[in-house]
Amino acid sequence: MTTKLFGEPVRRREDARLISGQGRYLDDLGQHALAAAFVRSPHAHARITGIDVDAALEVDGLVAIYTWEDLPEGVCEPLPLLIPHPALTHGRTAYPLAREVVRHVGEPIVMVVARDRYLAEDICSLIEVSYEFLKPVIGLEEAVSGAHLVHEDVPGNVGAHLVQEVPSADGRSAAEAIAAAPHTLSFRLDIERSASMPLEGKGVYARWDADDQSLRIYSSTQTSTSVRMALAAKLGLPLPKVEVIAPDVGGGFGVKIVHPWPEEVLVPWAARVLGQEIKWTEDRREHFIGSAHERAQVQHVQVGFDEAGRVLGLSVEILHDHGAYTHYGIIVPIITSTQLLGPYRIGAYRVEFSSIYTNTVQVTPYRGAGRPQAAFCMERTMDKIAQHLGLDRTEVRAANFIQPDQFPYDQGMIFQDGRPLIYDSGDYPESLRKLKDLIGWDDFPALRESARADGRRLGIGLGCYVEGTGVGPYEGGHIQITSDGRVHVSTGLTSQGQGHETVFAQIAATELGVPIDRVSVVTGDTRRFGYAVGTFASRAAVMSGNAIALACRKVREKALRVAADALEADPRDLEITDGVVHVVGAPAASIPLATVAVLSNPLRYAFDEEAKRATQFASTGGMDRPPVSEGEEPGLEGKDYYSPIRSTFASGMHAAIVETDPDTAEIRILRYAVVHDCGKMINPMLVEGQIHGGVAQGVGGALYEKMVYDDHGQLLNASFMDFLMPYATEIPHIETDHLETPSPLNPLGIKGAGEAGVIPVSAVIAAAIEDAEGLPIDRMPISPSDLHALRQGRGR
Amino acid sequence: MKPPPFDYHAPTSVREAVEVLAEVGAHGKVLAGGQSLIPLLNMRIAAPAHLVDINRVAGLGEIRTDATGVRVGALVRHAAVERSAAASLAQPLLRQALKLVAHPVIRNRGTIVGSLVHADPAAELPAVLALLGGSVRLASTTGEREVAAADFFTGPMESATRPGELAVSAFFPAWDGGTKFLEVARRHGDYAMAGVAAAVRLDEDLRVTAAKVACVSVGPAPVVVDVTAACGGRPVASVEWGSVVAAVQDRIEPEADIHATADYRRHLTGVLVERAIKAAADV
């Protein structure tokens, strides 16, 4: 049995458990806990003038009702602004329960704790909140007019304003470069709102142990360690008395990196106050109106270019709809601004964004996190340049690519990790060559003509992107080899279905030379690993993967040292194969790792046959040194951290062939091709799975998903009946090819892959529809009804 | 997303069921497949004080087929009719329509009669019943009555079923000609933005002697239009589609929603009318 599993398409070890109903998701826990439910604002903008709970107090089974007035110091304060930034001059976060004013439909006002969720919801419906209505601010253009304010003390509804300018090599500003360019274009682009929409919503279950004065919290989160620190601070508890565990999590896609959510503060607090277990499981409507959305931007673009299509100057002004609050800071528009440059060398670049408050659900990162908007902007720009010059769209891109010999390439900006935007490696011309081969770019004109002869309308489009992945600051890994020869891997970041139990085990098996079935992996449990950041930004494989590899190397070194002692050999002559340490070239001289684990922990007391070997009278060790040598620790354990100097940059290119029905305006994706480069692949099958899922979400954003708010700030499609996530039937077969340009920044040479699939899809589909129809597609998503309106010349 | 409190009744005979329904009157709601009612309860959009679960009622599970058509009992699931060769032979439009109803898991639970009583103007089965001139049999403590489709669908989500009545079966007449159901939905299995069921009859020289369509999602109830005259007694290949489409578009009243404009629904209905009649004639 090989243990060299790095790079192999190992099947996901977690799936048998998860698909046979053995998973333990949040709502599977705490079957006897009290239930919490929330009265949420039905209005987008209103002042609370009264809360009448009299009728609710009569209900048998009621345990407690809380409003903001009931919350103690710490708990009653606004939620933390997680990522402060100097440009976020007017950051605002919500109170856990609304204080005086509600600013979006769905904002929690009252928490009810009752015997079960049915009763809790009955009680919520008996609580009467009275309001004085305020004018809701809906839509970016209405918001920037500043006529009405979401927050009284935020003029113009502008939460943040940031300008970044990168002059050309000869020192010209973007404005100057555009003015001097032989060709210029200017246009407007729109992208609508979508959302992470994990199948499992949020949820929290808290248990207060009065004897131990400790709190255990289960949360469906992407960051258990940060939830722990936030709650210990809010509740005034010593950190060691708070444990946070992320059980099986049914998807996150970004929304669960935000923390602590109001419910995540209130449920543990109430559990402690009441001395009873409490659970809250978010329902779908709550998730639509009470969590977070993403994507919505309006972009005004000016570009200047030469005859070959090389971009000499690019200026982009972005209006970013931030919803009612900025809990997660301005990471999304920062990523849009910086990742807009993609795989290109731009002459001079200026980007300006304004983050605007509206009376809608707040905007926080959703898979792609600002990059789909960025790719939409840059790739639509490339297509417009090609059309203007009459050039092939791939030629214009090739003319602008950073070349393989130009890495590391400094884009001259500051990225989302606060560090320079320096691309570590890549090969964009080769990616494009592969993509053209895969989709049959050069053969498409003939295909289009033969389809046209049958009365069918086809179009082709492509899109490129670069994705900064594996952002710091750090992750850690802990390895313990126990005396049964089992390898226990733990890391602090959480899992939401990515396959960490598989890939982290592959890394450990490869590094340690043990069979993978002896390796187990625990993530997101602060009892096992207390220091971590979280799972987001395509970072888990890069960060924890490398940390686990480094920790394994420490353990391996120690195992060889202990084994060398026992075998009276030089550690440099030893190897581990299939869980056995042996002398290279002399397999008879060997000792199982299990025995090495026994010997590494000198014992006073035996507990089984194997353990006797480590007790005092069995030892043959030298009497001239202590049983545990100076600088050593008992046991076969290792812990290490990986903290990168900066992000590593994955890249990819997608292409699609689309058919539009000349009569019904239906849009069908006939083929979808992806070339992807995430450096060395730990498991190519899981990389493909990530790409498939990403493309599926991208197709959702391109053709189906939007959040429809009316002028009153009501979300009209807050259910799966009307918010159209694509089914498997809407997703085309996805053809993939890979490039492996190793990252020079980390020991494993890997880059992140989690978000790649979603990033360019809207750009690609828009380009293909535009190609089929000969109509500019500048606003996504696009529905058949929208396309029909465009054909009628009425716009949208 | 938990329903408000309700009293639950599980009668085992039609007599018992209608007695309970008579007692609870307007406060009662019948539960059959639950594919529409349960979400409405969980979202607290509907809050009946009494739920009358008819799943244990004897005698409502039959599909009866003869030369005149197909009679479907109130507990017959979509999937059962979809799979019934006899039903499909007697009235092929049923299977054509059922393949467009949601997804297999929903069709496994949902009932044909339940869809009719729910009377969603975007649903396929009301259009099929309306096109074919079928009927629904309603039982109460005072006896049974048979209501023709034309009188049954009274508005969006409204049928002629009165408080105290239980729809026990529906009858889909046979049609000695061709049929076709076409629709365009946002996603596979969604309610259609527009859909057209067509029934056509040709003479020996392939001229259209009868043609009618039922349109979904373009009015408060299925819109049935007889287009025999507009087809002008011509063979399908030389029908003037402009006047056929106009005859239908004159009758429909599409409205805009978040998925489609009224103009697009009108246009789409026109496209589907032509396609469905051509396909129905092509047998």
From TrEMBL, chain A:
Coiled coil ranges: none
The keyword GTP-binding is assigned to this record: no
Source species of the chain: Acrocarpospora macrocephala
Keyword annotations from UniProtKB, A to Z: Molybdenum, Oxidoreductase
Pfam families: Ald_Xan_dh_C, MoCoBD_1, MoCoBD_2
Protein's UniProt keywords contain Cell cycle: no
Region (Disordered): 617-637
GO MF entry, a single one: iron ion binding
Domain Aldehyde oxidase/xanthine dehydrogenase a/b hammerhead: 20-135
NCBIfam families: CODH_aero_grp5
Protein name: Dehydrogenase
Gene3D superfamilies xref list: Aldehyde oxidase/xanthine dehydrogenase, a/b hammerhead, Aldehyde oxidase/xanthine dehydrogenase, molybdopterin binding domain
UniProt-listed InterPro entries: Ald_Oxase/Xan_DH_a/b, Ald_Oxase/Xan_DH_a/b_sf, Ald_Oxase/xanthine_DH-like, AldOxase/xan_DH_MoCoBD1, AldOxase/xan_DH_MoCoBD2, AldOxase/xan_DH_Mopterin-bd_sf
From TrEMBL, chain B:
Family matches, as PANTHER family: XANTHINE DEHYDROGENASE SUBUNIT C-RELATED
GO molecular function: FAD binding; oxidoreductase activity
Name of protein: Carbon monoxide dehydrogenase
Keyword Repressor attached: no
FAD-binding PCMH-type domain residues: 1-177
Domain of life: Bacteria
UniProt cross-references to SMART domains, sorted A to Z: CO_deh_flav_C
InterPro entries: CO_DH_flav_C, CO_DH_flav_C_dom_sf, Diverse_Substr_Oxidored, FAD-bd_PCMH, FAD-bd_PCMH-like_sf, FAD-bd_PCMH_sub1, FAD-bd_PCMH_sub2, Mopterin_DH_FAD-bd
Database matches in Gene3D superfamilies: 3.30.465.10, CO dehydrogenase flavoprotein, C-terminal domain (3.30.390.50), Uridine Diphospho-n-acetylenolpyruvylglucosamine Reductase, domain 2 (3.30.43.10)
Pfam family, one: FAD_binding_5
UniProt keyword annotations, A-Z: FAD, Flavoprotein, Oxidoreductase
SUPFAM superfamilies the UniProt entry points to: CO dehydrogenase flavoprotein C-terminal domain-like, FAD-binding/transporter-associated domain-like
